[in-house]
């Protein structure tokens, strides 16, 4: 954690940037302005403004944008609609839950530079820029022909994951520039024939041959910013986090808090580097943990390593711990960099996480 003085300085800056004129709450960063109705009770955690600006820069650089959008407005809502958790257009987005914020910012970056695309490209890329979970990316996808041609009203949460898996496949196989080229060749109302033509032009082969290759490979997630040291701070062991969701002023804590919704929360994001396989002990209290290995995320993993990693809930072998977010367990963790997301299971209650190094992992 950063020093208390640094945290207090950031809180003071955020307070100066926030205004409440009884009609709207406003928090201004360099690239993003957050707004909310006063009745929502929203507050920004101490690290959100700086993290959001770093993220916008990283997403823009990743997508190949000419500069970073500097007048983005993001409206915070207590909940979404029956069918939408958020929506983005050029320079503006709203989000009805925390997990939609980065997704909608991803949309803003791609729309600002390249306009809107078909559902599989638009939603697949936004989901890849801001994945809601990690376990889903290692589950077998639907056959691509079942989701590639869907229009946006038909594109459900399951298709978001599968679209991101397909985009990951083409990024690894053809590069992000080719994916952006395909994105820009189609629009929201493109026909199946037009989508096929975009695939062929951008990726250079029959679309169904590419689909067959995709289905034959290990599904995976390609990190686009999660392991970028310019965005995500380094973690050190032993690691300890104790946080009251309604007192999240520390400069290392992005996120949002409100007493009026279970869909918003503070979170900790960090990257841990290990030089060799280690036995790490995890102690969770009302905590929800995501972990992603930054290297070789598409390599088929030994079965014993798929439980519980990468996961967004605890392993089923922990019984009630999977449901409650309380547990004490030790896992072999491979060398390299590992991206962590930590947040409360119940956003209205304090949560804590302990990670300690228990020594070299056995062969």
Characterize the structure shown.
The protein has 363 residues and is α+β, with helices and mostly antiparallel strands. Helices cover 31% and strands 23% of the residues. Helix 3 packs across helix 4 (119-129), helix 4 packs across helix 5 and helix 6 runs antiparallel to helix 7. The two termini are 33 Å apart. Mean pLDDT is 84; it is low at 1-16 and 301-324.
Throw out a few tags for this protein:
4-stranded antiparallel beta sheet, 363 residues, 23% strand, 10 helices, globular, disordered N terminus, alpha+beta
Sheet of most strands: 6 strands, mixed
Provide mean pLDDT, rounded: 84
Number of strands: 15
Secondary-structure-based class equals alpha+beta
In helices, the fraction of residues equals: 25-40%
Instruction: Assess the beta-strand content as a share of residues.
Output: 15-25%
The number of helical segments is 10
Radius of gyration: 20 Å
Global geometry:
globular
Query: What is the distance, rounded to the nearest whole angstrom, between the alpha carbons of the first and last residues?
Result: 33 Å
| Order of strands in the sheet with most strands | 1-2-3-5-7-6
Q: Which blocks of ≥5 consecutive residues have pLDDT under 50? A: 1-16, 301-324
Order of helices and strands: HEEEEHEEEHHHHHHEEEEEHHEEE
Please give a quick description of this structure:
The chain is α+β, with helices and mostly antiparallel strands and 363 residues long. 31% of the residues lie in helices and 23% in strands.
Which SSEs are present, and which pair or pack?
Elements: H1 4-17, E1 18-20, E2 25-28, E3 32-36, E4 43-44, H2 48-63, E5 72-76, E6 86-89, E7 92-95, H3 101-114, H4 119-129, H5 157-174, H6 176-185, H7 192-203, H8 207-216, E8 239-243, E9 256-257, E10 268-274, E11 278-285, E12 287-293, H9 303-306, H10 321-324, E13 327-333, E14 336-344, E15 351-360
Parallel strand pairs: 3-5, 5-7
Antiparallel strand pairs: 1-2, 2-3, 4-9, 6-7, 8-15, 10-14, 11-13, 11-15, 12-14
Helix pairs in contact: 2-3, 3-4, 4-5, 5-6, 6-7
């Amino acid at each position: 954690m950063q020093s208390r003085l640094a945290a207090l300085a950031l809180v003071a800056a955020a307070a100066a940037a926030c205004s409440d004129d009884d009609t709207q709450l406003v928090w201004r960063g360099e690239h993003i302005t957050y707004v909310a109705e006063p009745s929502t009770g929203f507050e920004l955690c101490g690290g959100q403004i700086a993290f959001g600006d770093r993220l916008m820069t990283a997403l823009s650089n990743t997508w190949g944008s000419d500069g970073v959008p500097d007048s983005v407005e993001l409206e915070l809502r207590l909940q979404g609609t029956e069918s939408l958790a958020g929506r983005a257009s050029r320079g503006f987005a709203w989000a009805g839950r925390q997990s939609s914020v980065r997704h909608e910012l991803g949309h803003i970056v791609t729309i600002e530079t390249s306009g809107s695309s078909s559902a599989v490209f638009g939603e697949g890329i936004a989901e890849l820029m801001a994945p809601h979970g990690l376990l889903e990316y290692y589950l077998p996808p639907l056959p691509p022909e079942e989701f590639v041609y869907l229009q946006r009203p038909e594109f459900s949460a399951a298709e978001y994951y599968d679209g991101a898996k397909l985009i990951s496949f083409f990024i690894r196989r053809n590069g992000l520039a080719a994916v952006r080229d395909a994105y820009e060749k189609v629009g929201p109302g493109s026909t199946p024939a037009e989508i096929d033509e975009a695939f062929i032009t951008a990726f250079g082969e029959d679309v169904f041959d590419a689909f067959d290759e995709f289905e034959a490979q290990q599904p995976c997630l390609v990190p686009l910013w999660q392991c970028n040291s310019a965005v995500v701070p380094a973690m050190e062991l032993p690691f300890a986090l104790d946080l009251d969701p309604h007192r999240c002023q520390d400069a290392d804590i992005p996120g949002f808090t409100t007493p009026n919704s279970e869909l918003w929360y503070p979170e900790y994001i960090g990257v841990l580097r290990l030089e060799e396989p280690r036995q790490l002990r995890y102690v969770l209290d009302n905590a929800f943990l995501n972990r992603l290995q930054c290297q070789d995320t598409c390599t088929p993993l030994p079965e014993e390593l798929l439980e519980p990693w990468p996961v967004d809930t605890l392993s089923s072998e922990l019984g009630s711990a999977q449901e409650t977010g309380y547990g004490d367990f030790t896992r072999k963790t491979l060398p390299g960099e590992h991206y962590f997301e930590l947040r409360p299971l119940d956003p209205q209650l304090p949560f804590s996480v302990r990670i300690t190094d228990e020594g070299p992992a056995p062969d």
